[in-house]
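From the thread on structure requests for the teaching lab: each student submitted one protein with a one-line request. Submission from student K.M.:

"Model Deoxyribonucleoside regulator from Pectinatus haikarae, tokens only."
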Amino acid sequence: MDNNKERLSINIAKLYYESDYSQQQIAEKLNISRPTVSRLLQYAKDQKFVRINIVDPIEDNSSLEQMLISKYNLDDVKIAYTPLDTRDEITKSISAKAAEYLYAVTKDGDIIGVSWGLTIYNVALKLRSKSLKGVQIVQLKGGVSHSQSNTYAYEVVELFSESFNTVGRYLPLPLMFDSVQMKKLVENDRHIKRILELGRQANIAVFTVGTVKDDALLFRLGYIDEKDKRILKEDAVGDICSRFFNAEGELCNKELDNRTVGINLEELKNKEKRILVAGSQRKISAIKAALAGGFANILVTDQYTAHALIK
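Reply posted by the TA:
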């Protein structure tokens, strides 16, 4: 059997049936003719790769998952197959895989702490409803922003709560305060204390990792001034829940960290399930550092990122 033809037909089928690309869009992306796309879609059907779901008989990520578990001392790894090594396609694939994983592992009485951002929002969109008792959803960090950039903080909690038939707990505060004193004053409010404590009690945490690139969401929200940006870029490689860390997984910029609202990295490490949902080449160094720091014990990623993490 021609493996190259088989692989190409499966990639095209996934783009067409799962990602809603038109045949013309696929042709342009893969630099082939539209009739070729049509023929390979038919070939995929003839070979029974396309049924209700797309069947991929070649790709087997189980050994790659085990390599990552062993290398980074993880409890579990889930690798989502994505047909293109692009940020959009990777986000779609890993979000669906993370939603599937959460459906499988969440049980009665779980407290799920959620971060925010585009990746986690996509996870929330793909969640299936599951009838459980006593599940609670809580926001792990401040979500109020006056920027034009959407954090999806409210939408994430709302969608998670709908899926698990519960009422979500929002953290109605800015992500960062101008001073430590002001942050401490607000956190002393008894209602805020309860939400923060529920976040600490959560046994499941779902989050992604950010970068320190110029277009990073945290930099676009306006909380971090130019001086702190320069300092972070010299040392940090990424953030989790807006807590920045270096390549060794050590906390960076304690002054900034002390002004940040929400769960800190040491508290995060106490969770039973710490689910990091992240992929793409731009995030490789941040993911490696997050795993080195022990902030996640479960990784959901794609095959391209997985291979880079092994190297």
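TA comment: The CA atoms of residues 69 and 77 lie 6 Å apart. The first strand starts at residue 76 and ends at 80.
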